[in-house]
Amino acid sequence: MPSIALRVNNEVATGDVEGRTLLISFLRETLGLVGTPMGCDTSQCGACVVSVNGRSVKACTMLAVQAHGSEITTIEGLAGPDGELHPMQAMFKEHHALQCGFCTAGMIMSAIDLVKSNPEGLSEPEIRHGMEGNICRCTGYDNIIRAIVAALPLITSGSAQTWERADV
Amino acid sequence: MYNFEYIRPESLESAQIALSTDATAQALAGGMTLIPVLKQRLNMPTALVDLSGLGLSGTKVENGYLEVGAMTTHAEVANSADVRMCFPALAAMANNIGDRQVRSRGTIGGSLANNDPSACYPAAVLATDASIKTNQRVLAASDFFQGMFSTALELGEFILNIRFPLAVRAGYAKFPNPASRYALVGVFVAKFHDSVRVAITGAGQNGVFRHAAMESALEDSFTEAALDGVCTPADLMNDDIHASAAFRAHLVRVMAKRAVSAALA
């Protein structure tokens, strides 16, 4: 079995995996990071989105071996050591951007990648386009967009340097 | 997913050996189609040969051509300064493939080698008469695509890069399937100094195809109005639960007009 070594939430993670082991299985079952849920398992819903080398990726559609040598951040890697929420998490809470919460980890990971990739700012249609890979079955989209709009200046202004901890 | 051996060669030669000595080995690019297919157990390769270690990503512009490495992701094409400056229609196309996460992983070479009849890239490649360089030869776009999910690639052969001649103007418009965002119909128009080429994806029964009647109409006048009288025979169109053949034939003209409009913008 191939051995893999990667960094997950700023910690070294290693393991032996089968070729077919999915990244999400490695995260959940080997590392115990169950904050990333398996949603549709068909790369459509986006519940399993994590950050791989700074880009949002659906962990159900990437092999664990493909992540060898990469830097991964999951939802567990966002909050500060004292539990202080990442600005995107805080704005999701503030704007009631979740109902059942199943899609939330993926929504937040996608939204952070989107905002960080566009430091010059984003229009609402650009946010909607950027979030097309994430489905919320509680149909909470409007509040999700509001949360991302609110988090945008907090993340891009530089005041969020403390949130670079996990390098997402 | 059935298990397989995972191989990540670091030279073209070892990749070729891995892919040609085992007829059931399969090349892995971004995996955005292949991994879902494997998860459904629709395919059972003995080995996956990951092409990510061969240095095949990146873009460059020279002598009127844009060259895109096979392993360049859709996100990289969409954000490349080279592509945005010299071939903005391709950057715009790449930015609308799948969703953001698919664009993080999916590659142009993987898309072309798969030749999904609803994929976007084949339309850009055929409409610009791009050439496809493999580890063995250079193929013209018209020779490369050989019908639905079928290409000229042979055992042990994989794409190294795609070389696009730069058009004077180009535009792409697609009517996406609202769930998958694959093209129900996608039309790419490319205007060169002495010719116009139009390629249609998503619509045809045999994958991407050129539309001769639209090409000659647009050579006479590169305007939306030039397409008003141009028909697309419905009997050559796909007909499925997503759209009837007649609707697809109608969409070909609507999307072609939008592509011309985008090219003129």
Element pattern of chain A in H and E? EEHEEEHHHH
Structure summary, number of beta strands of chain B: 12
- β-strand percent of chain A reads 5-15%
Low-confidence stretches of chain B: none
> How many structural domains can be distinguished in the coordinates of chain A?
2
User: What is the straight-line distance between the termini of chain A?
Assistant: 29 Å
Which bin fits the share of residues in helices of chain A? 25-40%
Strand content of chain B: 15-25%
The main β sheet of chain A shows up as: 5 strands, mixed
Shape of chain B: globular
Task: Give the neighbour order of strands across the main sheet of chain A.
Answer: 2-1-5-3-4
Could you state the CATH homologous superfamily of the domain at 167-265 in chain B?
CO dehydrogenase flavoprotein, C-terminal domain
Tell me how many strands of chain A there are. 5
The CATH architecture term of the domain at 167-265 in chain B is 2-Layer Sandwich
**N-to-C CA distance of chain B:** 46 Å
CATH superfamily of the largest domain in chain A: Beta-grasp domain
| H/I helix tally of chain A | 5
Describe the structure.
- The complex is a heterodimer of chains A (168) and B (265).
- Chain A has five helices and five strands.
- Chain A has 168 residues and is α+β, with helices and mostly antiparallel strands.
- Chain A has two domains: 3-77, Beta-grasp domain (Ubiquitin-like (UB roll)); 87-159, DNA polymerase, domain 1 (Orthogonal Bundle).
- A five-stranded mixed β-sheet of chain A has the order 2-1-5-3-4, sandwiched between helices.
- Residues 159-168 of chain A have low confidence and may be disordered.
- Chain B has 265 residues and is α+β, with helices and mostly antiparallel strands.
- Among the domains of chain B are: 5-53, Uridine Diphospho-n-acetylenolpyruvylglucosamine Reductase, domain 2 (2-Layer Sandwich); 167-265, CO dehydrogenase flavoprotein, C-terminal domain (Enolase-like, domain 1).
- Chain B contains eleven helices and twelve strands.
- Chain B has helices at residues 12-20, 34-39, 74-79, 81-86, 88-94, 100-105, 108-114, 121-127, 141-144, 212-220, 245-264, and strands at residues 5-7, 25-28, 47-50, 59-62, 65-69, 131-134, 138-140, 159-165, 169-176, 183-191, 196-201, 209-210.
- In chain B, the strands form three sheets. Chain B has a five-stranded antiparallel β-sheet with strand order 4-5-8-6-7.
- In chain B, strand 9 (169-176) and strand 10 (183-191) form a beta hairpin.
- The radius of gyration of chain B is 18 Å and the shape is globular.
- The chains are: A alpha+beta (168), B alpha+beta (265).
- The interface between A and B is medium-sized, with 29 and 26 residues.
